[in-house]
Design a protein that fits this description.
11 helices; Cobalt-precorrin-4 Transmethylase, domain 1; five-stranded parallel sheet; Methyltransferase, Cobalt-precorrin-4 Transmethylase, Domain 2; alpha/beta
Length: 272
């Protein structure tokens, strides 16, 4: 018999309504309340599976004001589930505020395994190692995108973006890193699901007439990733006032690299 918890974090389908676990359906029927991002979106899922549990809104704009309500209901002995519009709560979705409160106050919390666009995407694209950085929704401004692209140039990074912005985002990444390899997925688990690999120029050409659907993208690390890493770290340390000799000691210690090579690289770089 499964253990009971006070608060359940429940993933919902990212597209295909059948992608929900039997346990998730059972718990959504058993709890007293369901906290959801958009009650209208969640109600469609609940109606499909004949779940009659009462819902209330919990989204990024009312997270803090909902805390006391949730705590009072839990103190009254009720069980609550948290869902987002799609996927796993707190993966670019609300939930962080209430989870921190519940943990601090000793309530029992559990998360069910289930749908997530990041893992669904990564499990079907080629990668040469397990390392990647997930940055959530990529920033909106060109300067922020360039900074992030440079920061993660030394290993794979994954991000979400909207169909309205993704082509512009890819052009900015291309300007910053060159015509490098990426993987792009859209409409995952839906009828028109598509995952493509290639150079940024090839992806831009393929989608020159536009793109639709929710987007998840991975930018592959360059082949000269260690050099890019050192350049980024040297620039970062110089901006904080470290001298070339200090930088060579720090980076050679952290990365088990040749101190003299890093020192020569550091003195050859111009500071902004």
């Amino acid at each position: 018999m499964a253990r009971e918890f006070d608060f359940y974090i429940i993933p919902t389908p990212i597209g295909n309504i059948s992608d929900i676990t039997l346990r998730a359906i059972d718990i959504l029927k058993q709890v007293d309340l369901i906290a959801c991002e958009d009650t209208r979106t969640t109600q469609k899922l609940l109606n499909h599976y004949e779940i009659r549990t009462k819902c209330f809104s919990y989204h990024k704009y009312n997270e803090r004001e909902r805390v006391n309500y949730i705590l009072s209901e839990l103190n009254a002995g009720k069980k609550i589930a948290l869902v987002s519009d799609a996927g796993t709560p707190m993966i670019c979705d609300p939930g962080g505020v209430i989870i921190e409160e519940l943990v601090n106050k000793g309530f029992s919390v559990t998360s069910l395994p289930g749908a997530c666009a990041v893992t669904t995407f990564l499990s079907q694209i080629p990668r040469n190692n397990e390392e990647f950085s997930f940055v959530g929704f990529i920033p909106r401004t060109e300067a922020q995108i360039k900074e992030l692209t440079q920061k993660y140039s030394f290993h794979n990074f994954v991000f979400y973006d909207s169909p309205e912005r993704i082509l512009k985002t890819l052009k900015i990444i291309q300007q910053t890193r060159g015509d490098i390899k990426i993987a792009l997925g859209r409409e995952l688990s839906k009828l028109f699901e598509e995952v493509r690999f290639g150079l940024i120029s090839e992806i831009l050409e393929y989608y020159k007439d536009g793109i639709k659907g929710e987007i998840v993208c991975m930018v592959y690390a360059g082949t000269d990733n260690q050099d890019k890493l050192f350049d980024y770290k040297i620039k970062e340390l110089k901006s904080k006032g470290f001298r070339d000799k200090e930088i060579s000691v720090i980076l050679s210690t952290l990365f088990n690299a040749n101190k003299n090579d890093i020192y020569k690289r550091s003195i050859s770089m111009e500071t902004d």
